[in-house]
# Entry
Amino acid sequence: MVTGCGMVTPLGLGVAANTDGFRTGQTAFRPVTIFDVSRQRVRIAGEVTLPAHLPVGLSAPRRTRLLDRAGRMLLWAAHEATQQSRWKQASVASFVVGTTGGGMSLGETYFRTALHEPQTRRQQPTRTIGYQAHRQATMVAQTCDVHGPVTVIANACASGANAVGHAWELVRSGRAERVLAAGYDAISQLIFAGFDSLQALSPTCCRPFDAQRDGLALGEGAAALTLELLEAAQQRGATILAELVGYGAATDIHHLTQPHPNGDAAVATMAEACRQAGLEPCDIDYVNAHGTGTPLNDSAEAAAITRWAGAAGARLPVSSTKAGTGHLLGAAGAVEAVVCVLALRGQWLPPMPATRTPDPACGFPLVTQPAAAQLTHVMTNSFGFGGANATLIFRRWS
Amino acid sequence: MSGIFISGMGAVSPAGWGVECLRDGDLPEPQAIARPGWKHPLSVRRVPAMNPRPPWAVHPRMRRSALISQFAMGAAMEALSQPADGPLGIVFCTTCGCVNYSRRFYDEVLHDPAVASPLLFPETVFNAPASHLSAVLASGAANYTLVGDSGIFLHGLALAAGWLADGRVTRCLVVAAEEVDWIIADALHHFRKSAILTEGAGALLLTRERQPDTCAELEYVTDPQPFAARGGKAVREAAARRVAAALPARTEATFRRSEFDEAFSAGTAWQVLAALRRAQEQQLSHTTVIAPGAYQEAIGASFVLSRPIST
# Structure
């Protein structure tokens, strides 16, 4: 059961600030200010406006001094989720976190300092420790008064979904009583320049599944969900937000950065998630696609959804919320999991208004305008470099 | 955790390619690695070149791969020496990741991002080695990359044991690997000036069924015990003692890392291999490993010996 959610995206800080943005299909792209992009092909991204202060009520705010921008976003999301779940103080819970870069900005600063001021020691040991994703996650957990094993999954852009899925497996198997699952990543110069070097960034605008799409937009953010068994949640009178009922993970071995054109691994994860949930494609009411907006990803995913859904595809609404926030990398899977929970609770479909001309490969209707819908089961896909594929299915709780 | 068997082992270390090298080979003298801006180089221990080159080295995925991927592949292939069927899960563990390509790519970005190489960037992601493992082994099953302190290899064993127990896979390869780069040697130098950064990989093949090559059973992996890096050796040792207390009481031998230089996650993998070997040589029925991490947490595991190690 999902009993708490928290999120930070370019659309806003906190679930409440994000809900309307996702429901109405707002976009949040602006010129990058965190580092110099004057020599880049693309110069915009979904940058988060992060307040200087920390969330109120933290149990040990001093621990957060080592956190960089990414870690602070994770802290905001984790704090919101644990506050909503009303876990009692000093909860024993596992913390499973997905990320691609961890404290990359600290690593970049470390390198620049080591290179340009080679005799300088000041702050370098601190950056060495703070850069480690595992260390960041531990600091965030301790600050949120969550005490238990910390696991960092770095499965590229599927990391967040893998973290949520792994957390679900821990709870379901009895290996953990409750788990805080999260994904986070901040825009960093290395990653931004990397995607730009691959010419994967859109020089116009991110239009997932549009026939004229020309790339993705990068974004940053974090999201967290608290997961626990129904009995435990009911015993303490927790509000149940949704039920996580299926998780599939597989590996696409076609290429390090390109999906197999047929989307075989994506079909496998969607089928596996459905099998675990005891559902058929016709039972799924909405798919939150990975939908980066790159020509190769979207055509492979369109082929996969079309093949997996079969006849049910004709009535299966699909959209990608990356149209509004950009690709949040290690945070994407967790953010999109929270979007699914919000959609189930609000009974709406997140649109992507910039998509005007659907790719003919889409054998399913695309959600391009805000719409209400009757949703019982929703699915979210996440794929990443290295062929990491993951699918989650959430059920409405009533 | 009973019923999880160790049915294959592999290692790549400065002593050479293979578990036997780790067992019998002498560690070579440290090499110097230039540290830009410093008059004196740093000391590291590097893995010798492959000789002869194994067949997997010519796989298209491996042509431009980083050394960390090649070390991981070498250890994995040795652990998988016996053919078997069934879905193969992969858990790749690392502390520092693909740092060489990351450092080179970021160096290019700082010079001029407009011409930074798109060939380098894909190999910078943490899960590039794991992806190459899946591709070369033609395994489409689940594949996780775990990042953490030196004991992350033991976390990986626990995660793999969970996959096997749940029936998600029938075999699971757990691999830890690290590579040397001056920036990591520099970072290590801030904390322990005498430590020598070392590269390589270690691998264990876990199975749900006992195999001809099964040498031990994974009995238990403890929860990690955190410590504050700034607390120094005392807090690290205290965390290790808490791990020892959490391990099964009937342990006959405890193996602590001391003979390896700082190889982070790979060092813990070698530690497990050495512990199993010593327990086998001394005809013990149980052995434990305690891995006090480099900067964050200690963790331990216990093993029940099955029969002499086939290697």
